[in-house]
């Protein structure tokens, strides 16, 4: 028998919110005041999949403190109890999670191990599967008050994987014929009570929440895809606005801007499979032409860090490992740059997308650097939905992408596998190297801790020495926040923002 990993009682840990609203005038749930105890929030995304937790919309439900998972991640990205009050590893491939007593769904039904297992199996058998499950082979079953998780291969990250918002547990009534309806079916301190198309969603405090009751009466989340409009929302009184663009802050009060460490990195992807940049010497020539420090100072207005690798300050253990001998020696293997004569007149296509306001400007700057080095650059800039497939099809020589490098488990191995593995599902660099695949496999099978961190950095060094892509900027998230709101969570994984502990000055009086 393996030792019990977690036997901890915790108070409610809930999610957050990316969005905005207008204050309500009528009384709200419980004994809370109306106007003064509600807030307005705003952010970038609108639902793409009717708020299905099997899609990227799951992040919204998590951020709104509506849906919860069996586990959550702490500041070190280590699993902690949530709907599972404890767990133990039975053997290399079997885990037992004990379901918390006294949890009610928003429709009044009670959480059971059977319902938790059914919800997980719904996700596991969905087509397509949520991203968190597409590279693992799990089975889920109920045993009394426990959920049994079995993995086909030893997996040290089972508890962390179950923290993914894609695997939130909803009431039985939420699950229809291939569809999921989250309205009124979560377990969090706030109940999703209404969605107004691509405009807004409304949350109310849930009086029967299993943890500490929500301090707020509720909030409305409005979807603001336009970056200029988000900045305007800060100026016009929206309490919390996330995903501000550094290019639109000119008229925003600096006192309202809050920097948030993120796991997001802007990266220049080379098409390593065909064309000009299948030659590593040409990749080096392009990389050496780009002044990333100036890009941070100009395009990002100083909000960010020059990327020394894929993993920025959100993973504080990464930077010290870049000084290790093995790491620096691997970087020395990079192929020297092609000569200016070889570069001169070489035609290339540079692509990016408009969804993030800074990326088109970044493309202009990078084009200038590359043309100064002798390349002849043609740009392609479109909405992401209309450019993604062409990027995967290798139609561009270069592609600029802003990407979260810590995906569903809070661990970088999933990102490395999907973005740089030979069979990776998000391999924009079209990169494949069996030696790198072996390094990724080693990292994936290593237990959580310093050895795994070292193995992850071995992969990063190998990718940088081969210039599979060029990390440019470790991004900083920017919020606009009112001084009347307290307890906003600044989560590098963007899973939490508003929690049961978030208050207003009115609720503190």
UniProtKB/TrEMBL annotation:
Keyword Signal present in the record's keywords: the answer is yes
- To which protein family does this belong? Belongs to the bacterial solute-binding protein 5 family.
One example of a Gene Ontology biological process annotation: peptide transport
* Keywords for the protein's UniProt record, in alphabetical order: Signal
Source taxon at top rank: Bacteria
Which residue positions does the secretion signal occupy?
1-25
- Gene Ontology, cellular component aspect: ATP-binding cassette (ABC) transporter complex; periplasmic space
**GO function term, MF aspect, one:** peptide transmembrane transporter activity
Recorded hits in Gene3D superfamilies, A to Z, give: Dipeptide-binding Protein, Domain 3, Periplasmic binding protein-like II
The record's listing under Pfam families reads: SBP_bac_5
Tell me the membrane topology, using the record's own terms. Lipid-anchor
Record-annotated Solute-binding protein family domain positions: 80-426
Where does the protein end up? Cell membrane
Q: Which organism is it from?
A: Corynebacterium cystitidis DSM 20524
Q: What is this protein called?
A: Peptide/nickel transport system substrate-binding protein
Main subcellular localization, coarse class?
Answer: membrane
